[in-house]
Write a structure and sequence with these properties.
This is Late embryogenesis abundant protein LEA-2 subgroup domain-containing protein. The chain is built from two helices and eleven strands; from the N terminus they run H-E-E-E-E-E-E-E-H-E-E-E-E. The protein is α+β, with helices and mostly antiparallel strands. It binds 2-acetamido-2-deoxy-beta-D-glucopyranose (5 copies). The site of one 2-acetamido-2-deoxy-beta-D-glucopyranose has 3 residues, from loops.
Length: about 220
């Protein structure tokens, strides 16, 4: 009986010791977990406050000084074989909106103008650095210099000009960097796409729809 008791007794002290050990280990682990949770929370808050946002680019205005679509007929009779010559002189104003708490730098951007996937001209937007939480305007000149559109596209653009509804696409890719606490974040490549419609006779912008998306 006594033997059994002492065995039970010693096993219960061992169990208590073990439970104490488990308890302090639990305490340590618990403390560590709480600390980890706290750090995660702080990290999440910092991330929410300071995380880099992609800047937003858009077309604000387009001033057309000249726009002509000329029919070019080859031969004497073939009304079908008309190609067209497109010329345009315009000023484009883009806006860049930086919602970051840091400044953003942009590389220069080549903006391609296309009509039905045919490149008709390009504009160069200069590199710039933008302050935190700001919106800036940059302007550039788009010149289309007597671009020959073949008989198929030519017929379409002649129709569009007559209908006073001439659509063009503008596409450009720009490299951006957010400057966080004095160092540059990895480059973010942004694509700007605008679908615009011009009023041929009034030399005005009828509509514009722009979107930016992150390429990588
Ligand atoms: C565009 O035209 C408008 C009115 O015609 C003028 O107020 C504006 O300054 C022009 N913008 C540019 C960039 O030429
Ligand atoms: C022009 O093309 C249309 C269809 O493509 C054809 O029906 C018409 O006869 C053509 N006209 C001339 C003058 O070639
Ligand atoms: C485009 O228009 C501007 C303003 O009218 C003018 O100064 C410039 O010479 C024109 N450029 C071309 C290539 O026609
Ligand atoms: C502009 O791009 C869109 C989408 O890629 C296309 O569906 C449309 O035909 C293009 N318009 C012109 C005028 O090139
Ligand atoms: C613009 O055109 C140039 C030359 O054709 C081409 O290298 C570039 O990739 C084009 N950019 C975009 C955004 O399509």
């Amino acid at each position: 009986m006594g033997l059994v008791e002492s065995v039970v007794g010693s096993s219960s002290t061992a169990a208590r010791k073990r439970s104490e050990w488990v308890w302090s280990c639990c305490c340590l682990m618990g403390g560590f977990l709480v600390l980890l949770l706290l750090l995660t929370c702080i990290g999440a808050v910092l991330w929410l406050v300071f995380r880099p946002h992609s800047p937003i680019l858009s077309l604000q205005a387009l001033n057309i000084t000249s726009l002509t679509v000329k029919q070019m007929t080859h031969g004497k009779t073939a009304a079908n074989e008309s190609s067209a010559l497109l010329s345009m002189n315009s000023t484009l104003v883009f806006s860049a909106t930086n919602t970051n708490r840091f400044s953003v730098s942009y590389s220069a951007m080549i903006l391609n103008a296309t009509y039905q996937d045919v490149a008709v001209g390009h504009a160069l937007v200069a590199a710039l650095k933008q302050e935190s939480n700001s919106k800036v305007m940059v302007s550039t000149v788009l010149i289309v210099d007597k671009v020959n559109l073949n008989q198929f596209t030519g017929i379409d653009i002649l129709k569009d000009a007559t209908n006073d509804h001439l659509p063009l696409n503008l596409t450009g890719i720009v490299d951006t960097h957010v400057h966080t606490f004095g160092f540059k974040t990895p480059q973010l490549q942004i694509e700007l796409r605008c679908a615009i419609v011009l009023r041929y006779h009034e030399l005005q912008l009828a509509s514009k729809q722009c979107g930016t998306n992150v390429v990588h």
